[in-house]
Design a protein that fits this description.
Helix content is 50%, strand content 8%. The chain is mainly α. The radius of gyration is 32 Å and the shape is elongated. The termini are far apart.
Length: 119
């Protein structure tokens, strides 16, 4: 256990937090796979497999796998999928296109005059 004197409090703790924020902004922090997975929002195993086999950006420090914040950003961007229209939206578009084709048969023709019926 650490002694109460070794635990930073008050102004010391604020200084440590500010230094950590500056380091994060400068991309000087290296995260281990479990921390990087939390930052990215994925599973640790998926992240490790991606670094080992799929070309995810990462750093190897000896036998340790590490990720910078820039690596995390790049991995998120690499795996971003563009929005796809839903099946319902596709069906609506197809239905509108089909009704346009059936009603747009050319210019309107004048209606024929009614034939008088002999009584």
């Amino acid at each position: 256990m650490s002694s109460p004197e070794a635990t930073p409090t008050g102004a010391d703790r604020e200084a440590i937090i500010e230094a950590a924020i500056k380091a994060l902004e400068q991309d000087q922090v290296m995260l281990d796979p479990s921390e990087a997975a939390r930052v990215i929002g994925c599973g640790e195993r998926w992240l490790r497999d991606g670094a080992n086999h799929s070309g995810f950006p990462h750093h190897r420090l000896g036998k340790f796998l590490k990720f910078s914040l820039q690596d995390c950003r790049e991995i998120r961007e690499m795996n971003r999928e563009k929005a796809k229209p839903s099946e319902l939206a596709k069906a609506r578009r197809n239905r509108k296109a089909a009704t346009r084709k059936s009603t747009d048969s050319g210019p309107a023709k004048p209606a024929a005059a009614p034939i008088p019926v002999a009584a």
